[in-house]
Amino acid sequence: MTQIAKMEIAKTQTMTMETKEIATRTRTAEGEKFRERVLALAGSEVKTCIQCGTCSASCPTAHLMDTPIRKLVKLVLEGEKKAALSSRSIWLCTSCLLCTIRCPRSIRPMAVVAALKTVYEKEGKRCRDSVFEGIFGRQIRDYGRISEFLLSAEYMIRSPGSAAQIMAFGAELVPKGKIELGFEAARGERIEGTEEMRRIFELLGDEGKAEAEKVEAAEAGEAKKAGKAEETKEAEK
Amino acid sequence: MKLAYYPGCVARSTGREYEISTLAVCRALGVELEEIDDWNCCGATHVSNELVSTALAARNLVRTDLPVMASCSICYSRLRAAMIRLEDRKVREKVNQALEKKYEEAKEVQHVIQTITRALGEAEDPEDLVVRPLAGLKAAPYYGCLLTRPSGGIDSPENPSILEDLIRTLGAEPTDFRLKMKCCCGPIFMPEEEAAAETLIRILRNAKESGADFVVALCPLCHLMLDANQPLLEKKFGEEIDLPVLYVTQMAGLALGLAPEELGLEMNSVSTRPVLEKLAAIEAGEKAEEEGAEVC
């Protein structure tokens, strides 16, 4: 039995206690909003998670993670926004989909991770991995395609620690004619449909946020009923 | 057979030899390719917003009426995953708001390994095409993760055999490669190099231990991680690997009788010469044997 599988079993034993905890703990308004936002992005079937740990046991980078994927799903359902978003695990997912093809509940744990990345980025949080994703996405939005040169150059500027690695790779690839140096060559790859690219990112990029805002609006409505509107008015005065 | 060709960004940079060999092999097999006009990046594994990545894939799919062929496993998986999401009417409507040409129906999407396998399968006599069987060569079939995922694609998502079958059809022998499905960690390589290196060296050691003369790759990111990265890994771990990594199209091209330069074999980082030399030596040996038999 692998180390990971053993770890998962040990965790399952303490899980009954944790499950009780979910039932008794009430989610904060912010936690609720976070939960709905992730569910809107990753699919409402996430709610049916039985915490079996198949995802964590399958994950090729589980041994590097501070929070196993199973636990990430639990944190989402509990509305534990801070803990979920601060986990390094979401940046160690390689998107290999092994968790997703194995999940007995047909949940897509990888989609949960992707949703957490989306929320993380929308909240304006930053780490070297999100910087890389940001550069990647912006390049597609502005050019339609990825230029290895532009990607590496910009990442190296924003994350100088990566310079040695990128240079070593460049020394391997540039002489083979695989990476053309220079901004001109990179811009030559720009597609015609950049207007459409921009629309895809602008119109669809904020979808998860829009869903969450609906929840927020509903909550605000209830708050009004509870008479909290009075307080706001006073504050405005 | 005529197919729409989706090259993907890597075909124009670190995976140039994949594109060169893909085009050469398709030509040799009589498969006509028409590049999708003004195609865009599929988003790979780096666009976490699913609606955006689905729309990126959809824009490529609506630009042709032909079945689509991709040679990159990530592009191929992204196109398939998007079509699954687009079965949902709500997703389709949202995505179509952003698209100029609307996505109406699913398309046939294939990976180049399917194209090759089918063309050989449909040939009256595959031996007419496989003019230079790779007899005597041992190949480690490296699938990586995304060729067969999401489920419902060309083969079992956990234990496929399409590559082993192709290796045999081409006359070579597939090795028993335990880590054939292990993810190369390429998607996190840029920011998480340490983590990826540890996995990569295990995959390479395992391929070597399997007795392979070379590894076969189906994805340009896997190839980049195992080939261009190999000298760096050797330095990092202080051990010699020296294992050539051929794209599936380079391997197929050799068996179809194409010259090494038509397949971009000189562009690989780890020299592919030992593979060519072994093949030539085996052929020379066979020829000598035949001549010897004739003399007798």
- Principal-axis shape of chain A: globular
| Run of helices and strands of chain B | EHEHEHHEHHEHEHEHHEHH
Principal-axis shape of chain B: globular
How many angstroms does the end-to-end distance of chain B come to?
47 Å
Protein name (chain A): 4Fe-4S dicluster domain-containing protein
Family (chain A): Belongs to the HdrC family.
Protein name (chain B): CoB--CoM heterodisulfide reductase iron-sulfur subunit B family protein
Keywords (chain B): 4Fe-4S, Iron, Iron-sulfur, Metal-binding, Oxidoreductase
Outline the secondary-structure elements.
The complex is a heterodimer of chains A (237) and B (296).
Chain A: H1 3-13, H2 15-24, H3 29-42, H4 54-58, H5 69-78, H6 81-86, H7 98-102, H8 109-122, H9 128-143, H10 148-158, H11 163-173, H12 183-187, H13 194-204, H14 207-225, H15 228-236
Helix pairs in contact in A: 3-8, 3-14, 9-10, 9-13
Chain B: E1 2-6, H1 16-28, E2 32-35, H2 50-61, E3 68-70, H3 73-85, H4 89-98, E4 109-111, H5 112-122, H6 126-129, E5 138-141, H7 162-169, E6 173-174, H8 193-209, E7 214-217, H9 220-228, H10 230-237, E8 245-247, H11 248-255, H12 273-295
Parallel strand pairs in B: 1-2, 1-3, 3-4, 5-6, 5-7, 7-8
Helix pairs in contact in B: 1-11, 2-3, 2-4, 5-7
What does this protein structure show overall?
Chain B: This is CoB--CoM heterodisulfide reductase iron-sulfur subunit B family protein. Chain B: InterPro entries: Cys_rich_dom, HdrB/HdrD_reductase. Chain B: It comes from Candidatus Methanocrinis alkalitolerans. Chain B: Keywords: 4Fe-4S, Iron, Iron-sulfur, Metal-binding, Oxidoreductase. Chain B: Pathway: Cofactor metabolism; coenzyme M-coenzyme B heterodisulfide reduction; coenzyme B and coenzyme M from coenzyme M-coenzyme B heterodisulfide: step 1/1. The complex is a heterodimer of chains A (237) and B (296). With 237 residues, chain A is mainly α. Chain A has helices at 3-13, 15-24, 29-42, 54-58, 69-78, 81-86, 98-102, 109-122, 128-143, 148-158, 163-173, 183-187, 194-204, 207-225, 228-236. Chain A is globular, with a radius of gyration of 22 Å. In chain A, 41% of the residues are buried. The model of chain A is unreliable at 227-237 (pLDDT under 50). Chain B has 296 residues and is an alpha/beta fold. Chain B folds into two domains: 2-112, Up-down Bundle (Glutathione S-transferase Yfyf (Class Pi), Chain A, domain 2), CATH 1.20.1050.140; 126-287, Rossmann fold. Helices cover 46% and strands 9% of the residues of chain B. Chain B contains twelve helices and eight strands. Chain B has helices spanning 16-28, 50-61, 73-85, 89-98, 112-122, 126-129, 162-169, 193-209, 220-228, 230-237, 248-255, 273-295, and strands at 2-6, 32-35, 68-70, 109-111, 138-141, 173-174, 214-217, 245-247. In chain B, the strands form two sheets. A four-stranded parallel beta sheet of chain B has the order 2-1-3-4. Chain B has a four-stranded parallel beta sheet with strand order 6-5-7-8. The longest helix of chain B has 23 residues, at 273-295. The chains are: A mainly alpha (237), B alpha/beta (296). At the A-B interface, helix 7, helix 8, helix 9, helix 10 and helix 11 of A face helix 2, helix 4 and helix 8 of B.
